[in-house]
Amino acid sequence: MIHFHNILVLWVVLLGFFATGVYSKTNSQDVSALNVMYNSFQSRSKLKGWKSSGGDPCGESWKGITCSGSSVTEIDLSDLGLSGSMGYQLASLTSVTRFDLSKNNLNGDIPYQLPPSAKYIDLSQNGFSNTVPYSVSQMSGLETLNLGRNKLNGQLSDMFGKLTKLKELDLSYNSITGNLPQSFGKLSSLKKLYLQNNQLTGQINVLVYTPVEELNIENNHFSGWIPNDLKGINIKSGGNSWSSGPSPPSPPGAHRNRGSGKKSGSSNSSVVTGVTIAGIALGVLLLLAIIIALFSRRKRSSSHLLDDDRLSQRKSFCTYSSKDLSKELTSDYKDMLLINSAAVSIDIKPVSKSPSIGFLSLSGRLQSFARRSTSVKATAYALADLQVATANFSPARLLGQGSIGRVYRAKYDDGKVLAVKKIDSSLFQGSPPQEFSNIVVNISKIRHANIAELVGYCSEHGHNMLIYEYFRNGSLHEFLHMSDDYSNPLTWNTRVRIALGTARAVEYLHDGCSPSTVHKNIKSSNILLDIELNPRLCDHGLATFHQRTSQNLGMGYNAPECIKPSAYTAKSDVYSFGVVMLELLTGRMPVDSSKRPAEQCLVRWATPQLHDLDALSQMVDPALRGLYPPKSVSRFADIVAICVQREPEFRPPMSEVVQQLVRLVQSSTANMREDFGIGSRNSSAMSSKREDLAASRRLTDF
After folding, report:
1. Of 469, 484, 516, at which residue does a domain stop?
2. pLDDT at 289 over 80
3. Does residue 34 sit within a domain?
4. Phi, psi dihedral angles at 423 (to 5 degrees)
5. Is the pLDDT of residue 74 over 70?
6. In a 3-state reduction of DSSP, which class is residue 246?
């Protein structure tokens, strides 16, 4: 009996041992993020308990880690002599509310993503450079942000509109330039603001909309006056270029968020405000009466210059940037004033070689649009002319085939060469007759240096075609994956330039179009290269057709959330762009069945190695023959990693990707000699344009 009892006790002890050694109390996602952070640090001797792989931060009491249950909730690594960076997986720390790495020697950029639920972030007294990461704009629960005493530079983005709980903001002792962003006025809980010892300019009037009580703006380049509403608070303002004399009155409503901060004159102020509001209301009513009268007069007019559906039509046009919109509003105003004047005219460029041919005879919507805008430059081409130019759409003229149609090379007697995209007629079954004309209108208004421009269209006898400029250098896919032993590869500098140009094109579609446009089919075969090897993104504006196809839009390019085309979002475009960057980095195709199973999917194979410098050097396209700056490649890989994250919310907006690529180009240019080290390699890099243009000669004209 005693023997059995001893055996039972032994089993209990062993089970306890294995449970302690094997079972981890900590969320695996948190463990992985802390492992990455540990590996990114350089001087880390004081991080007791931390591990480069695995471990149990909550159960093993890692230095500076506080947990609640199985989740890491606080990270306090202040003043531990840490150097290096913080890693790229901080967005996975979804339960962290306090994040303090102040008083260390960390440098480089602040990571694109920080713990998304953080209420307190202190990264002060380090060596961080560049600017405040855009991801901060989405941290609506943030209460304290301290980035003081770093090396931040550049202008502040207008990204503070959602930070309504932010109470303390410290950006002091950096080199930040430009004016204060207008979204500062949305900081409705702000009590303390420290901006001293920067290079900020302009006026500080936007601060009167905040309840700030403690303000330090010393030693900047501010001008204008200190608003009266700020003179009753604890303010330090020396070392600026303030205007002399009494300050002008604050704008209406300026003290609405000041609460008890306004200690005097509240009665008079409210009277003045009431009178001002009444005046504004009277002015608005008067303006409305004038507008109604003008529109009534316009309705009675027989003029056809402004159609009834003009405003609703404009909402569907892709490329009304703020600049374009202001021009259109100005045009509208002139039209209202001159509606009955014979002097009003619009110069319409002929859009058809054969007036009786083209879809204008099928739908009057494009004619209606032409009366409203002179920016549609697409020309109507006759089907008969295109048949001759493409040898009756001969297979010998076929340039490529996608999920919605085929692309042919059209060559004319005068030497002009065009690319004709013939859309599958089955995609129009059941659609309204004006659909194709709407597509032409939308695409023809897209104007960007890195987007292939629509030059024409054809819609006859059930055939619908889009006509683009022809690029004899072909696509990025051809350059990367179809080269031969006699071809020079794209140099590293040109690859970065192609990535930046493509990113700018996608950013334009996302942010420069109204409404925002999602491409939904970003891949290397849709990135054409002009004679200077600048990228031209094509296949834009055709998402409506992609949603009708059952095909996987781009094997290996689809984001994890895109189980069907209709699930695509702007963040899905970011993922696809990240895959293109991986192609540029590795020279591999997104999916390659000729590789061993573990390497067939490019993203799955490459992602775990993007922050391992030794592995990264083995991943770089062998065609580069080692002619690349290692620092540039490492930073390029960092951008890839954030773009191809599985969770859409953790991917940055395209505008942030563009900013990071611009910084990469700037830093690479500044450090090129240091990065290469060897004179011959440096001269090879500097002559990249010459090599790339020589490489373009390998493509023969069809």
Report:
1. 469
2. no
3. no
4. -80, 135
5. yes
6. coil
Which token pair is 192?
Answer: 């303390």
Residues 436, 518, single domain; the answer is: no
Rounded Cα–Cα distance for residues 478 and 689 (Å) = 18
Whether the predicted pLDDT of 651 surpasses 50: yes
Regarding whether 436 and 486 lie in a shared domain, the answer is no
Same domain for 415 and 535, yes or no, is: no
**Lowest mean per-residue pLDDT among 29-38, 375-384, 572-581:** 375-384
Nearest to 144 by CA among 126, 125, 162, 118: 118
Reply yes or no on whether the pLDDT at 443 is more than 50.
yes
Report whether pLDDT(373) > 60. Answer: no
Residue 516: the pLDDT is 83
DSSP secondary structure string, 445-459? T---TTBPPEEEEEE
Half-sphere exposure in the Cβ direction for 342 (13 Å, CA) = 0
Helices (H), 240-321: 266-300, 310-315
Name the residue range of residue 565's domain: 476-698
Structure-block tokens of residue 599: 């390497």
Among residues 562, 551, 564, the alpha carbon closest in space to that of 426 is found at 551
d(CA 422, CA 467): 9
Most confident among 20-34, 518-532, 662-676 (mean pLDDT): 518-532
pLDDT reading at 285 higher than 80: no
Is pLDDT above 90 for 297? no
| CATH number assigned to the domain comprising residue 178 | 3.80.10.10
What pLDDT does 483 receive? 67
Residues 82 and 38: beta-carbon distance below 8 Å: no
687 and 544 share a domain? Answer: yes
Q: In this predicted structure, which of 17-31, 37-51, 135-149, 291-305 has the lowest mean pLDDT? A: 291-305
Would you say residue 30 lies in a domain? no
Q: How many domains does the chain have?
A: 3
Q: E strands of 402-537, at which residues?
A: 405-411, 417-423, 454-460, 463-469, 527-529, 535-537
pLDDT tens string 95-130: 999 999 999 999 888 876 789 899 999 999 999 988
The CATH number assigned to the domain holding 560 equals 1.10.510.10
Q: Are residues 450 and 547 in the same domain?
A: no
Centre a 10 Å sphere on the Cβ of residue 413 and count the other Cβ atoms it contains.
7
Q: Are residues 486 and 610 in the same domain?
A: yes
451 versus 262: the higher-pLDDT residue is: 451
Q: Is residue 353 part of a domain?
A: no
77, 71, 56: which is closest to 117 by C-alpha? 71
Task: Identify the CATH number of the domain in which residue 442 sits.
Answer: 3.30.200.20
464 and 539, same domain (yes or no)? no
701 by Cβ neighbours in 10 Å (0-12 / 13-18 / 19+) ranks as exposed
Q: Are residues 385 and 516 in the same domain?
A: no
Provide the mean pLDDT of the chain.
76
Strand-pairing partners, residue 456, are: 379, 467
Q: Tokens for 693?
A: 């243009």
The answer to whether residues 546 and 404 touch, using CB atoms and an 8 Å cutoff, is yes
Asked which of 208, 243, 263 is the last residue of a domain, the reply is 263
Amino acid (one-letter) located at 44: R
What is the helix (H) or strand (E) element at residue 380, kind and residue range?
A: strand 379-380
Length of the chain: 702
Q: What is the DSSP letter of 601?
A: B
Predicted local distance difference test score (pLDDT) of residue 280: 63
The answer to whether residue 103 sits within a structural domain is: no
* CB-based contact 331:345 (threshold 8 Å): no
Residue 640 sits at the vertex; the CA angle it makes with 637 and 644, to the nearest 5 degrees, is 145
